[in-house]
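Reproducibility note. Readers wishing to regenerate the assembly model reported in the main text can use the exact inputs given here. Chain order matters: entities are listed in the order in which they were concatenated for prediction.
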Amino acid sequence: MIIVAFLPVLILLAVFIALSLLIKKSSRFGFARGKTGLWMLIGYSVLLVGSTIVFLVLPIGSTELRGQENDRDAEQKSQQFYEAVHEGKVDDMEEWRIHEWSFPFNDEQIVLQVLENDVNGVNIFVEHTDELTETVEAFYYQTPLTVNGYEVEEKYMPAVVLGATTLSIYPGETLNLKYKMFGTEFPFRLFGEENGYAWGRTTVSHWNGSALYIRVPEGLDVVADQNAYTEVNPS
Amino acid sequence: MSLIEVQTSEIVKKQIGYKWKSYTGVFTSLVVIQLLGLLFSLNGSGSMGSGRTGYDVNITYYTADIVVGFTIFWGFLTAFLLTTKAYREDDFAFVTNRKTSTLSTIAFLFVLCVIGAVTALLSSFTLKLFAYFILPGEEMLLTQGVGNGSAWLLGMVATILIIFLFSSLGYLAGMIVQLNKMLVIILPVVVIGLMILLYRGGFPVQVYFFEFFFEESNAWLFTLKTLSATTIFYALAVLVSNRLEVKQ
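Running the prediction on these inputs yields the following structure tokens for the assembly.
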């Protein structure tokens, strides 16, 4: 373990010694002599220029501008979404619906059980409506999650299960997303709006908004922990 | 006394040509250090993970920052080693004096810094290409462009200036060490010791140094700062070299 801790120092030391040997004129090391160095540089330059051409030909463009536009769009959508969900405008939220559940239920009281872990909490909204009889409906909505302007296609979803008199909401499986980001070198970031050393806005550019919207028949008594849900009264 | 008048610029030019042909070890070391930097960069220059409801997002960044850093170190070390006796004596194969010898070395170092900067920045494409085709496990590729051509040129100039600045530091350190071989140990001890002492006294000089140069967002001011500092370091090196005896 001690060796591992000192590994960076050892590597740097090895680099230092190797460089000194390569550059030092009195060195007997073969690479430092003749035209080997020049040919190595020529070969290396050809490799670099070749990779540059191939990279520029590949369909990987800069996404920054598109990203910023998408971010603004996503921010606006998120705001609209929260306004709609608080006002119970279900029709306005249609584009963000991920999943829906429908359960037959004819009791007078329903217990809402929310099993959350630390990270996967979900905002729950309950609406009493006379449009439903002996049925409980649940809808899961989610606005897009964007990473540097790209919309993430994978959608998270909680699990909703109805027992005898209990509607249980379980956290869904966390989605592990891994990305490669091709950034710019620090001299290019020196003169930007943000100063170079911070990675800035290269991470998740917009987190998603989400809500579980439950519709229950008028008169059905909902029993739950305090602050477990928000009651919605669409006007 | 010769009747042929020799121009300084001609001698400097000839000496640069000579150095280009005979100091090929610097190119080998440049290629080796950049390849090493590329190897280290394959693990990513950094990564960021964050999570919220239902998502755990991990982004690995690929940039040639490590290669650029290694090249800066190479610039320092190359300049340092070019001050050694073996290299300096080479110039006496030509009609020379200390002025032309120093001028040609500085000019040669500048050429090396340009090559180092260009190859370091181009290596980012090689790294990204490698990450694109070979590195497994990630789901998606994202790119952050440099911007327009002028931004790229500005970054290139900044890289050259940074490497040249550190090469001037290396040259100064090398000249100081040539005064007395014991200084090869004493100089780093004094410099690092002073930095630690000043840091403890609430004056982190190394932090101020980096802030002074690398937190300058105005390109003109950055150029002015780096060029001024480079000139001062090279001038100091010349002053030190004047204290060396002829052919020492």
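We highlight two features of this model. Residues 75 and 233 of chain A are 25 Å apart (CA to CA). The helical segments of chain A are 2-23, 36-57, 64-87, 186-189.
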